[in-house]
Predict the structure of Ketoreductase domain-containing protein.
Amino acid sequence: MDIEEQQVAVITGAASGIGLALVQVCAARTIRFVAADISLPRLESLSHDLLQRNIDHQIMVCDVSDPSQVKALADLAYSHYGRVNLLFNNAGIMINGLSWECGVAQWQTVMNVNFMGAVFGIHEFVPRMLAQASPAHIVNTSSLAGLLSSPMMGPYSASKHALVSLSETLLYDLQSQGADIGVSVLCPAQVASNIMDLIDADDNVLHKAGQLNDFLRDGIRDGMQPCDVAELVFDAIERGAFWIFTHPDFKSAYISKAQSMVNERNPCFEQVFCD
């Protein structure tokens, strides 16, 4: 899809990390947008900065795990701007620990945000996109964890695997209808963000996986800058690419996983992640 000035974007998880970087690219490209996030203080700080720069935008507190709030987000975007050309289902959380030690409520929370949040976004926005007289594109933020599993990340990996499958199915559904709506799935590896700080503050059970938390935190701290990820995303939209990867060195691990499937043998953690 050609990205043009004055198009309209909706971004969830917009007040930090990749979401914030997407906001800044939209602002630089004179794309109008609605920035949605669960944190009002972060949104207010973001909006203050954008107003200082005369950036056309709206903000909305939105918990994407609540379908009524996602509907309200779509209502706001369409009532204020009349169309949505870019939908970034980006909000996500991480909970880690041994699969049997993560509580049922934790599993449900991660699935509700990371997977159902995108489902609710698709449910509310796609019918309106189909009815509007302009092209659109949807980007779902998954992860390399949506393609490769690892220990201590059951809820997160399961939700991101589900999101990859949803994205593929959505692409096929839209193609079958001849819709002028593109789909991409973003599968980043480590990206510098505060996701670990956010989850650690919410649930003490995460400290049971202390060494993994340290490993993840170090990787995230030293990860790719969100602004670089956002530029990759916009380039992929303009090219009409479905897959968006940030770290191509993962591909040997994915090939090893695929070979274990073809050869009908058990996947080997060391083989997949240490090649």
DSSP finds ten helices and seven strands in the chain. Residues 198-211, 271-275 have pLDDT under 50 and may be disordered. The longest strand covers residues 181-187. The domain at 8-250 is CATH 3.40.50.720 (Rossmann fold).
